Amino acid sequence: MSPAAALLALVLSLFTALPLHAQGRAAAGEWSALFPWPLVAVHLHVLPDGRILTWGGADDAVHAGGSEAYLWTPATGLWTAVPNPTTNIFCAGHAFLPDGRLLVIGGHVSPEMGVPDAN
Question: What is the pTM of this model?
């Protein structure tokens, strides 16, 4: 078995071994039909309020040195553009702060160069 296949088998065994304590479809989640997204979701976060923040690759919706992220509200299915005119945030590092805000550090200039920005 290749290392990649072994890793995949391990990950799948972990998911099937976990008990499902959630009650109902809304808490447990479910698969649905495909629907269009405004970009390829290279980066994606589930925000504390349940909305999804996502942004794509280096060339997705890049404008004037910046980039565009999108907020998706699953309850309504609505997408909202979140433009960032100053930083192309592709390839940035990101983590939640203790107060629930998302910190996005760095970004993309070229394959070998990032930016010293924080968003």
Answer: 0.66
